[in-house]
Design goal:
The chain is mostly helical. It has helices spanning about 5-15, 15-20, 30-35, 85-105. α1 (about 5-15) crosses α4.
Length: about 110
């Protein structure tokens, strides 16, 4: 994976506002962070930087992440995940799901 893309993923997913919030310092993102109702940072669902190969995208849509799964039925990275797994799911998201759905017969 390109070094610039790796750094971009890390900047988004390990946003300093999250760390600051969990160090008991409110900031502009505190309301959004609190919406997950997670007391321990290691279980916090990290920001989703993008899905797919951003370096090949012809259009980039930027928005909030409406896919926060408070029921925990979907798998999204948390601070417990290894960096390499976070990088992998961000850049290979659609490939992973295509393989999964193919295997499951969907």
């Amino acid at each position: 994976m390109d070094k610039n893309i790796t750094e971009l993923i890390k900047k988004i997913t390990f946003c300093p506002n999250i760390i600051e919030h969990y160090n008991k310092k409110n900031n502009n993102c505190s309301e959004i962070i609190d919406s997950q109702n997670i007391q321990d940072k290691k279980h916090f669902q990290i920001p989703e930087p993008f899905s797919g190969e951003i370096d090949k995208a012809k259009i980039l849509v930027i928005s909030s992440n409406p896919s926060i799964d408070l029921t925990k039925t979907e798998i999204y990275p948390t601070y417990e995940w290894k960096d390499e797994d976070i990088l992998n799911i961000s850049s290979n998201f659609f490939t992973i799901f295509i393989v999964f759905f193919t295997i499951m017969g969907f």
